[in-house]
Amino acid sequence: MTSFAPALLGAARSLAATIRRHPSSAIAAAIVAVLVLAALLADYIAPHDPMAISGRQRLRPPSEANPMGTDNLGRDVLSRVIHGAQISLLVGISVAAVSTVVGSAIGVLAGYSRYVDLVVMRIMDGLMAIPGILLAIAFLAMFGSSVTSVIIAISVPDIPRVVRLVRSVVLSLRELLYVESARAMGAGPMRIIMRHILPNAAAPILVQASFLCASAILAEASLGFLGLGTPSEIPSWGNIIAEGRSFIGSAPWLLFFPALALTVAVLAVNVLGDGLRDALDPRFRRRI
Amino acid sequence: MNSVVYRVLSIVPICFVVAVVVFSLMQMAPGDPAAMMSDDFASEEQIEQVRRDLGLDEPVIVQFSLWLGRVLTGDFGTSLFSKIPVTTLIMQRLEPTISLAAGAMLVAIATAIPLGALAAVMSHSWVDRLVMTIAVLGFSLPSFVLGYGGVWLFSFKLDWLPVQGYASLGSGFGPWLKSILLPSLTLGLISAAFLARVTRATVLEVLSEDYVRTGHAKGLAPRTVIVLHVLKNAAIPIVTVIGTSIAGLLSGVVIVESVFAIPGIGSLVIDSVLKRDYPVIQGVILFLSIGYVVVNLSIDLSYRLFDPRIEG
Amino acid sequence: MVISQPSSSLSQEKTLRVSMLYDLNLIDPYAQTGYLPRYLGFMAYDTLFSINSKGDIAPQVADSWSLSPDKLVHTIKIRSGLKFHDGSPVTAADVAASVKRALQRNRFVHFASLVTSVDVVDDQTFSFTLSREFKILDYLANIHTPTFIMPKADAETPITQSISKVNGSGPFIFRHDLWKPGSRAIFDKNPDYAPRSEAPDFMSGGKHVNVDRVEWVYIADKRTAVSALKKGEIDWIVSVQPEYIADLKKSEGVEVAVFDDSGFDAVLRMNMTQPPFDNVKIRQAVMATVDQEEYLGLAIGDPEYYKVCASYLVCRSPWAVEMPGTTLRKKDLPLARKLLKEGGYKGEKIVILDAQDIPSIHQYALITAQNLRSIGMNVEVRPTDQATLLTSRARRTPPTEGGWSIFHAASAGLTVDTIVKNHYLWMNPQRAFFGWPDNPEMEKLRIDFSFATDDKVAHEINRKFHELAWAYVPHIPIGNTFEASAYRTNIKGIIKSEVPTFWNLTKD
Question: Cβ contact (<8 Å) for B41 and C227?
Fold first, then answer.
């Protein structure tokens, strides 16, 4: 339990086993892989420039040239959806990373020092009390709309959740024998945190991060729906859906394809998170 | 009883944190209500005059203390635009939002707890898989897509429910229920998805505890075991999740109110942010946060109800 | 006497539910946030004069009026027996005070100083005196700058402050107690209103109200408003955004019409105090990239709702002069590149303000960005919302320091139908509209125009001004757009006007 590498190896093995037993996780992983690839290679695989405006191509239904049709500015929906994967995954992964890293740091500190705990947890309670989307809206009003501010705006309300989780894990680990003995052997707090506590807290943090990623992708879309999200020049799924909904009655493909892409992506990340949990959480593993 | 006092007092710093966060965010936001109120041809001096009339020219710290002082006496100020007191605006909007949130909660609890428990009892059967698949799908769908889908089906295809709007309870139970049903379902199903997973996990955990097995050994029927022992012991985590999910629920309220044009608190905030109507934004967010804190406090205190062993 | 019930209480209350584009958030009829305060003004207040379908001045509160031989003193007698909603009578003192308040508006800044006094003669008569002859009644009667009659005490509120209660003498009573800002505003029929005896004619004549209540509903999600109209949950969407027109046109029980023939005049405005648009050549280069059909076809779509108009005034105006050649009707990219080179463009950053919450404005911004990039300009589209745009455009700093280079806007046609009224053509940089053009020669022509009493002279000045404008490029016209309005077919008799009117119409 004191070394990181074998734990990771074990996790990888059980992950493989889980995939065998849970084809849904495997399918989800495959979908996520395709999305990541699409996002990375968007510039090469998108058939058209996602931002090229063309009056002659306005509101074309799906066809061979435009498999998902074109929008009201004559832009190719398929290309926009592919590039949208870029933005949505960027937002999802960044939010998961930012809130996890910041939240873990604060959580470990809070779990380790009673004084920090007292102050920090009040602040976290305060942040938790504001509905996340309202906090995000206020943030966006302040920073103006850009991908970075969307990421910050969605991350901040998530941080307290990570802090709480990590803090509770740290609190329960702190009293365990091997941490006590490490301390008795004169290890400094930094070393104890890095060597003993974080590796053991990794599993629940990772699982949490996958769910944060999924919910961030949804949050980006919700902000786009309210017209407050990613700059609307950028083809994010939220923006494509928000623009497309005006045309449900006359050009339903504008809403259908991006909404489908969004739902499939969020679903895949969530299912993958479930699989990850099954693989990493020993208590769940025993039961399955 | 000391612990109760402590818990109640601990609300104060939380609310203070919220007040500071909200106030500083809005003060740093670009955009100027004075400019929005003046016409296109107003000179710099005229806009400055409007700003003075609104008290927006004071240093931020002075504005904050003035605002905080008034809030402590229960005065949330008035809207910069309509000049209507913020408390009146909140009261106008409270009934729709509470109806929607309560309706959604009801939908969530009524569907998620039985289904979640069922999934746990029949774990790894097709019932479990089905319930859990629907649950994952439930929180993977954007709420506005669900809402538009509901409108298409229930309002246009079946012609059962109105497309939008809110009928107050004062106008009769029937119209009220009709106006709130579709929004509650939309919002409730998303919360239900999450709650069902928690219920399943918790019940699974409790089922593996020794005393449940003892219950089996004593020859009690499995159904009685579940209802009596399991749900009682699973209650605390489930209730906790319900409490903390209220903030999430309110996030959903913002979207659903917009889809169904329900004049609730959520749309009030969005409107005010777009107009930079500072007193309203500050007042509403503070009000919501206090509401959230109080609800969670009562949930904490209610633990005694489920388990007398717990002390605050 | 159990049986006899007054028939009116038996018949169903008639409520007209109308979805407005914006939310009514200020109730001073002169407030300038959106158009709704003015629309409220036309419901709850009576106006001094009005306009008939021929564009002539017609009396409303005024009963008769006369002009002194030197054409400097207007004397106006008001109708007797008019009452405000609180029951107090409408007197000449109230009307005189109301005229004074109307004159404080910034739109009147150029000539309000020419009114030397407003005097009450007797209970029913007042007069005002000018220092120089001009068509003041045209301005006081215009439906964009109407004179709403309010009690003296309210009228004495400075125009920079909003009045906080509505006490007019108009055909509807605003229900302050039922007002929910951000959601709905309710107007009840004024039972004491005495309509004029003339037949209704555009905004003039008798205002007969045939419904008991009008509810303005604000539905932020326009998709939802469209669904509500299709289901008959609301009766009228005053302004339908272009993307919903096709859907509504094929809906049963719904009629789509244009009530405002003047339409809107869309413009691309440049900041003329900062490089590179302080240089006329560069402004001309941008003009050469514009094909109005491209902007309008993309943003509006259905040609029934837009019109190419290569003029500095809205094309419905008799003063509009269209540009010669193919300018604004066809792109000339080689010319644009040539002008760019001649102007010495050095790759300075162009910041386009993009109000994302207004779809057409957002689309114009994207099209302009693509056009400017196509001739090699360095463009940044800066996303913002309307609230921020209003403050950002006032900044005179360079684009790289929070300033701006380009914004797009659309003005109601009647506000921009002469070179005097059109604020984009104010050429004195101290008083000019954002973008701050500076051209004393053109400014002088505008002043001359406002005092020209001879039509021929006025047309001559107007043509000369246009020719100078084509070269100077104070802004680039993008074309005229017409707002669709959609209503249930059981609503009949809606008056064709840019201001939605709720008298005359009936609901079956």
Answer: no
Name the one residue in this structure whose structure tokens are 């941008």. C286
Q: Is C34 on the interface with A (CB under 8 A)?
A: no
How far is it, in rounded angstroms, from Cα C287 to Cα B102? 57
Nearest to A271 by CA among A11, A21, A89, A24: A24
Give the closest residue to C314 by CA, choosing from C91, C482, C121, C438. C482
When scoring A54, A73, A137 by the number of chain C Cβ atoms within 10 A, the one with the most, hence best to mutate, is: A73
d(CA C499, CA C22): 14
A150 and A91 Cβ atoms separated by less than 8 Å:
yes
| Residue B258, both tokens | 């917009």
Residue with tokens 């079946």: B158
Cis upstream peptide for C276 (omega within 30°): yes
> Mind spelling out the 3-state secondary structure of C302-355?
CHHHEECCCECCCCCCCCCCECCCCCCCCCCHHHHHHHHHHCCCCCCEEEEEEE
Q: Which residue has the tokens 């114009």?
A: C364
What's the complex ipTM? 0.81
**Contacts with A153 from chain C: Cβ below 8 Å:** none
- Read off the pTM: 0.85
Closest chain C residue to A52 measured between Cα atoms?
C370
Query: Which residue in C199, C166, C138, C63 sits closest to C495, CA to CA?
Result: C199
The span from the CA of C370 to the CA of C2, in Å, is 76
Give the whole-angstrom CA distance, residue C117 versus residue C95: 14
Question: If you compute the radius of gyration of chain C from its CA atoms, what whole number of angstroms results?
Answer: 24
**Residue B17 near chain A (CB below 8 Å):** yes
Distance CA C63, CA A260 (A): 65
Task: Count Cβ–Cβ pairs < 8 Å, chain B vs chain C.
Answer: 127
**For residue C445, what are its two tokens?**
């022509």
Q: How is residue A186 annotated by DSSP? A: T
Fill in the amino acid letter for B174. G
The owner of tokens 């609503």 is C491
Shortest alpha-carbon distance between residue C190 and chain B (Å): 23
As a whole number of angstroms, the distance between CA B158 and CA B156 comes to 6
* Tens digits of pLDDT across chain C (508 residues): 344 444 444 346 899 999 998 888 889 998 866 688 899 999 999 999 999 988 889 999 999 999 999 989 999 999 999 999 999 999 999 999 999 999 887 666 667 788 899 999 999 999 999 998 888 888 888 888 899 999 999 999 988 778 889 999 999 999 999 999 888 999 999 999 999 999 999 999 999 999 999 999 999 888 889 999 999 999 999 999 988 998 899 999 999 999 988 899 999 999 999 999 999 999 999 999 999 999 999 999 899 999 999 999 999 999 999 998 999 999 999 999 999 999 999 999 999 998 887 888 999 999 999 999 999 999 999 888 777 777 788 888 898 888 899 999 998 888 888 998 898 999 988 878 899 999 999 999 998 998 888 889 999 999 999 999 999 999 999 999 999 999 999 999 999 988 999 999 999 8
Q: Which residues of A touch B131 (CB under 8 A)?
A: none
Rounded to an integer, what distance in angstroms lies between the CA atom of residue B55 and that of residue C127?
39
Angle between helix B278-306 and B2-9 (nearest 10): 160
Contact B82 C181 (CB under 8 A): yes
Tokens of B270: 């969005």
Would you call C392 and B30 a contact, using CB atoms and an 8 Å cutoff?
Answer: yes
CB of A267 within 8 Å of any CB in chain B?
yes
Instruction: State the first-to-last Cα distance of chain C, in angstroms, to the nearest integer.
Output: 32
CB contact under 8 A, C391 and B35: yes
Chain B residues inside the 8 Å CB shell of A123: 17
Inter-chain residue contact B31 with C385, CB threshold 8 Å = yes
Token couple for A57:
């191509």
